[in-house]
Amino acid sequence: ETPYETILVERKGRTALLTLNRPKALNALNLQVMHEIVAAAEELDRDPEVGCIVLTGSDKAFAAGADIKEMHPQDYMDMYLSDWFSAWDRLGRLRTPTIAAVSGYALGGGCELAMLCDILLAADTAVFGQPEIKLGVIPGIGGSQRLTRAVGKAKAMELCLTGRTMDAAEAERAGLVSRVVPAEQLLGEALAVAETVAEMSRPVAMMAKEAVDRAFETTLAEGVRFERRLFHAVFATADQKEGMAAFVDKRPPAFTHR
Ligand code: CAA
Known about the structure:
globular, 11 helices, alpha/beta, four-stranded mixed β-sheet, six-stranded mixed β-sheet, lyase, 3-hydroxyacyl-CoA dehydratase activity, binds acetoacetyl-coenzyme A, lipid metabolism
């Protein structure tokens, strides 16, 4: 019924759940996984009934990296001409808020995939790292950039140069993840956060995401200017009228996502 072989797609109200499903390979991210995740996520992104997308893996592995067996035989021209991994960038351009729910290994491309999401929730079993250097390569899905922005230069350098991993507690201290929860509560917590986000005004949530994301791309003055323009723009939404009216009337808002 689903057109996908390596992922599962489920809908729960206004939340969509994407589950990596290559258990025998610890969810290693081959090109098929990449194309399926990106296609599924972009389809959900176009759906006005979807307010938040959760991406998760298995208990043992969110994803143990890009597929080493698939990359092993490739040469420079193969990588360059196919622009290997470039489709992953499209995940970072979704307008719908995304949550990575990470349990177990999030290594190499797995860590990079988690960092492509907007909110990163970790189980206490989560293990993060960019161990590519141990294979004689470097991160290729943005890890050297996003990890550095998330945890700072010293820790990013250490992880990328030694390949050592960090556990969930260290990842939270370093600011890579927003919260750590017991493994058995991870999915429930991620879906609860997703539902909270999905019940907010969809266009306003999109603008909030766009504003935060701009902080990674520009100067403080430009970012504040960008935020101010979006702040003014939300006053063109019906949901601003509703949200503020509901507060004044002491009742919950009924957003129409317009
Ligand atoms: N690619 C392909 N296959 C992988 C894989 C990967 N990244 N990670 C695990 N697998 C496969 C294993 O080969 C094994 O397959 P077989 O049963 O056919 O032998 C299966 O998944 C189970 O793995 P292990 O037996 O190794 O499981 P373990 O519990 O003993 O170890 C692990 C778990 C420590 C995560 C180990 O699997 C491991 O080190 N994996 C590789 C981690 C890694 O180096 N990731 C970075 C990849 S490079 C990258 O991601 C580049 C980039 O920037 C995008």
